[in-house]
């Protein structure tokens, strides 16, 4: 299979155009015409992942987080180490980031909790908001069984309540305020900080920190299954 054919398939489900303007999605390194035979997938293009990929003979590495966020004007240190391995193995590196969050990862979370009347949480398409039918304890069980044992702030007594989910880094003060304004009782996401926790307590909104990693890997696994292409998983 050619690299560009793998990319076409990915983009048929996670169109590049959906990505936010600060993002850097799509081809990161490599040749579109390369014949690829071993596909690898990882959440992050870390050095460990790239080393593992190169040891296993992976020639197409698909990641959620991009290899490059900002323009680079110097190739040394970690960047040098990563790029030399990528070049040595003639590897293609391709990333689907906010376009995958918007097209897939957030919906995977809202399906996991079986949310009803689901809408995007933010105007840019990130996150989902919907009604959860069940107890807070049931919601925590779903989290622990499918994502991870979460860090929990507050509790909720209702048997039906508004829930927001956002894959990755969501538990910021800014987003907690938006959730509160939208009547959210429980916000499930990742990357909780101390000050965000205090704000949530003051605003009486519950937080479930299921980690940046687990709120993204959950949907990424499902996405890979749907592609049906035999990816080797490298960091999950
Ligand atoms: Fe992320």
TrEMBL record:
Source species, domain of life: Archaea
GO molecular function: metal ion binding
Family stated for the protein in its record: Belongs to the GTP cyclohydrolase I type 2/NIF3 family.
Annotated SUPFAM superfamilies: NIF3 (NGG1p interacting factor 3)-like (SSF102705)
Protein name per its UniProtKB record: NGG1p interacting factor 3 protein, NIF3
GO cellular component assignments: cytoplasm
Organism: Methanocaldococcus infernus (strain DSM 11812 / JCM 15783 / ME)
Keyword Metal-binding assigned: yes
Keywords, in A-Z order: Metal-binding
Binding site for a divalent metal cation 2: 64
InterPro entries hit by this protein: DUF34/NIF3 (IPR002678), DUF34/NIF3_sf (IPR036069)
Pfam families: DUF34_NIF3
Record: residues binding a divalent metal cation 1: 65, 101, 212, 216
């Amino acid at each position: 299979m050619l690299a560009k054919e793998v990319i076409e398939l990915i983009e048929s489900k996670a169109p590049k155009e959906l990505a936010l303007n600060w993002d850097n999605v799509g081809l990161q390194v490599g040749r579109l015409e390369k014949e690829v035979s071993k596909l690898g997938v990882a959440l992050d293009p870390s050095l460990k992942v790239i080393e593992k990929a190169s040891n296993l003979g992976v020639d197409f590495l698909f990641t959620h987080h991009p290899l490059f966020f900002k323009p680079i004007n110097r190739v040394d240190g970690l960047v040098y180490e990563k790029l030399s391995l990528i070049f040595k193995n003639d590897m293609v590196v391709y990333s689907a980031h906010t376009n995958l969050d918007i097209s897939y990862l957030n919906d995977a979370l809202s399906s996991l909790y079986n949310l009803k009347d689901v809408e995007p949480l933010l105007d840019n398409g990130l996150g989902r908001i919907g009604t959860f039918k069940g107890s807070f304890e049931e919601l925590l069980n779903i989290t622990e069984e499918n994502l991870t044992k979460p860090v929990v702030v507050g509790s909720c007594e209702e048997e039906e309540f508004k829930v927001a989910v956002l894959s990755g880094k969501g538990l910021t003060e800014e987003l907690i305020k938006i959730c509160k304004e939208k009547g959210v009782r429980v916000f499930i996401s990742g990357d909780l900080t101390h000050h965000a926790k205090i704000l949530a307590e003051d605003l009486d909104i519950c937080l479930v920190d299921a980690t940046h990693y687990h709120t993204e890997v959950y949907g990424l696994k499902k996405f890979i299954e749907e592609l049906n292409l035999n990816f080797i998983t490298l960091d999950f």
